[in-house]
Specification:
The complex is a heterotrimer of chains A (243), B (310) and C (105).
Chain A: H1 3-10, E1 18-20, E2 23-29, E3 35-47, H2 49-64, E4 71-80, H3 84-88, H4 91-107, E5 112-116, E6 119-121, H5 122-127, E7 134-137, E8 142-144, H6 148-155, H7 159-166, H8 176-181, E9 187-188, H9 195-208, H10 215-221, H11 228-241
Parallel strand pairs in A: 3-4, 4-5, 5-7, 6-8, 7-9
Antiparallel strand pairs in A: 1-2, 2-3
Helix pairs in contact in A: 2-4
Chain B: H1 3-15, H2 23-30, E1 37-39, E2 64-71, E3 74-81, H3 92-108, E4 112-116, H4 126-145, E5 150-154, H5 163-170, E6 173-177, H6 187-194, H7 204-211, H8 213-219, E7 224-226, H9 230-243, H10 249-266, H11 272-278, H12 292-302
Parallel strand pairs in B: 3-4, 4-5, 5-6, 6-7
Antiparallel strand pairs in B: 1-2, 2-3
Chain C: E1 2-9, E2 20-24, E3 31-37, E4 43-50, H1 56-69, E5 75-81, H2 86-101
Parallel strand pairs in C: 4-5
Antiparallel strand pairs in C: 1-4, 2-3, 3-5
The chains are: A alpha/beta (243), B alpha/beta (310), C alpha+beta (105).
Chain lengths: 243, 310, 105
């Protein structure tokens, strides 16, 4: 789906959502008329220091506002911007700051929902989509942690070998199905149905749950990460017992 | 062994180079003597389930050591990455140990020290590593929101790259040595994607002044600049645990201002040397060669505001 | 990866009280040795997983030499090897045994 189609399906009565320099921000209304904040990255833009600062500013403005409305984070991005300037000025701090703002917003009652509708990769993925409480995706979304040509270069394995290996494990190859299996994506939406209705269902379900990070448990249930949840839990138990 | 030779051994352990030490040596020497208790130690053989697929050797602790110990008498939780195993990269087991430790820290209200040494995500298990980083950041920030201090130490061989750089920037405070490079994209990654004109990864001086510990200290990316010894890192960890700020809404507003101010002040600089000059360092070119003592004095003089909003 | 396993009977039981120790790291040309006091009597076992295949004879020699020189009875050595040279292997085995025998530290 294109961004215009997504916005039309989310907000049939229109919205104030605008696109500026590859970034999305604005507001629409939920089915019951209450507000839904929107921020995001579109047009496969890279997320560098300038973009992260702007997005974080939007989130802090939402937090400073009157309502406790949810925040929808729309994502069609490149990876983090790979440049001398961005790293020299501390890209790690800017990306972490954006993730902090999103996580704080969620803790303060602005439930965060990510919607991955295009590409995303590496550090941009972590600082945006993966910093939301619930990550949704649309068919055709293309999350990439490591692309196979780069992997082939580093591992010195032929790309055909990697493609064959990727059939037996979701743990390294790019793609929505693989990331979903490791627990990154809570649900993939149906583009034929109203997105407004589907996001509403998630928001209502979320309101009933405590904001606990259960992506590792989901990854275990989907057989994408068999050890992570158990290891984390055991460390927690051992730490408790060591006091 | 005599008391005198035991004391010598402690001195030797504290004097050793942080950069050269293994993760286990760092943990042992950093903590009060004999106080370390490991969680899921190497004898549990909880290795990566994914490396065998690539016919690669495993390490019994998967390159991550977590446990509890005492630092200057205070009970803390501690994690250390082994930068020589798979470049200290985050895999499923490696990452899950730190996630569990941070979740425990929040529950038990116990401070955490993390000794970073990482190239980022382990590419043979990239998706699991990426998820681990997202989960670690969430657990770390939730611990900080519960007023638990999380201190990061950066000075290892692998530096602190990729998702490791993001996790480091989530910490309450950081101590970094000259060798402690911090960035998201590594030098080779930038060169591969953007060309040698953008970044020449073989130009070591460029790498150090763009990502190295001195530059991070000068622009406010780390609180304390330390010498490359275990003793220096230990002293910094003790100092930072005592004064690290809490994570609050006001703190993030202050961090937004701190970062925007940096963009305004240095956004048009072409090189770190330009930034240093603009900071008031007349002889910027002399910074890379400065000794620890000279640089520490300089840092104290020119950094008027303590950059502790993070 | 190649899996090798050697069992020996040492001259005597290893001294000291420590239950386990770990030395080295898994990296190119390096190895880790986990040593555990878990075997009865003078039994000694060395279990190796190595990235460098086809060096079984060299390992056999290095291991036999190590067991002959020291008295690692009751110890199990588990090794993850990133392709270390025989002298590095011998050094790490000696370090591991020493770490376990300890000197009260």
């Amino acid at each position: 789906m294109t961004l215009a189609e997504i916005l039309a399906s989310l907000f049939p009565r229109g919205s104030s959502v605008v696109v500026e320099d590859g970034l999305i921000h604005g507001q629409g209304r939920r089915v019951d008329g209450s507000p839904l904040h929107v921020i995001g990255v579109c047009e496969r833009s890279a997320v560098g220091i300038d973009e992260a600062a702007k997005l974080a500013r939007h989130v802090l403005e939402i937090i400073a506002g009157e309502d406790s409305a949810p925040i929808l984070v729309l994502i069609d991005s490149d990876s983090q911007r790979m440049s001398k300037r961005d790293e020299m000025l501390g890209l790690n701090e800017f990306l972490a700051h954006l993730a902090k703002c999103l996580i704080l917003a969620d803790v303060l009652g602005h439930a965060t929902i990510g919607l991955l509708y295009g590409h995303t990769a590496a550090g941009a993925f972590i600082a945006t989509a993966l910093a939301t409480r619930t990550l949704l995706a649309l068919p055709g979304a293309e999350p990439v942690v490591m692309d196979l040509p780069s992997m082939a270069r580093v591992t010195k394995l032929p790309i055909e070998t990697l493609q064959a290996m990727a059939k037996t494990t979701p743990v390294f190859a790019p793609g929505l199905a693989n990331l979903a299996q490791t627990g990154a994506v809570a649900a993939t939406l149906d583009p034929q149905r109203s997105l407004a209705a589907q996001v509403e269902e998630i928001l209502v379900a979320n309101a009933r749950e405590a904001g606990k990070d259960e992506r590792d448990v989901l990854g275990k249930r989907r057989n994408g990460r068999t050890k992570a949840a158990d290891i984390a839990l055991r460390v927690q138990e051992l730490a408790r017992a060591s006091t | 062994m005599s008391a005198a030779s035991a004391a010598t051994r402690i001195d030797d352990a504290l004097a050793q180079s942080w950069y050269e030490a293994s993760a286990r040596q760092r943990v042992d020497a950093l903590l009060d003597r004999g106080s370390f208790v490991e969680f899921i130690g190497p004898e549990r053989r909880e290795t990566s389930p994914h490396l065998p697929l690539f016919d690669l050797p495993e390490q019994f602790d998967d390159g991550m050591i977590v446990g509890r110990g005492r630092l200057d008498g205070a009970s803390i939780l501690i994690a250390a990455q082994e930068g020589r195993f798979m470049g200290g990269a985050f895999g499923e087991v490696h990452g899950a140990k730190l996630t569990g430790l941070l979740r425990a820290a929040r529950e038990l209200r116990t401070p955490v020290v993390i000794a970073f040494d990482t190239g980022g995500v382990r590419l043979q298990e990239a998706n699991a590593g990426e998820m681990a980083i997202a989960e670690i950041m969430r657990a770390l920030l939730e611990a900080r929101l519960a007023a638990v201090n999380v201190i990061g130490l950066v000075g290892g061989r692998a530096g602190c790259y990729g998702g490791g750089g993001l996790i480091a920037a989530c910490c309450s405070a950081l101590a970094v040595s000259e060798q402690g490079r911090i960035s998201v994209s590594g030098p080779e990654v930038i060169e591969t994607n953007r060309g040698v004109e953008e970044f020449d990864s073989k130009d070591r001086a460029l790498v150090w002044r763009t990502m190295g510990g001195k530059h991070r200290r000068l622009i406010g990316g780390a609180e304390i600049f330390v010498d490359d010894t275990v003793a220096s890192f230990r002293a910094a960890a003790i100092a930072l645990l005592a004064r690290a700020p809490a994570l609050t809404r006001a703190m993030l507003v202050a961090e937004q201002a701190r970062l925007e101010t940096r963009l305004d002040a240095f956004g048009d600089c072409a090189d770190a040397l330009d930034i240093w000059r603009r900071l008031g360092i007349a002889d910027a070119a002399s910074v890379p060669a400065m000794s620890y003592g000279e640089f520490d004095a300089l840092g104290a003089r020119i950094t008027e505001v303590i950059h502790d909003a993070r | 990866m190649e899996h090798l396993n050697y069992k020996h009977t040492a001259r005597a039981r290893a001294t000291g009280e420590k239950k386990q120790a770990l030395v080295g790291v898994v990296a190119s040309g390096n190895l880790e040795v986990l040593v555990e006091r878990v075997l009865p009597g003078n039994e000694c076992e060395i279990d190796i997983r190595t990235a460098a295949e086809g060096f079984g004879e060299v390992w056999k020699e290095v291991v036999a030499d190590f067991v002959g020189r020291r008295s690692p009875g009751g110890l199990k050595f588990s090794i993850n090897d990133g392709g270390a040279r025989p002298d590095t292997v011998a050094l790490r085995l000696a370090q591991a045994a020493r770490a376990l025998e300890g000197d009260g530290t």
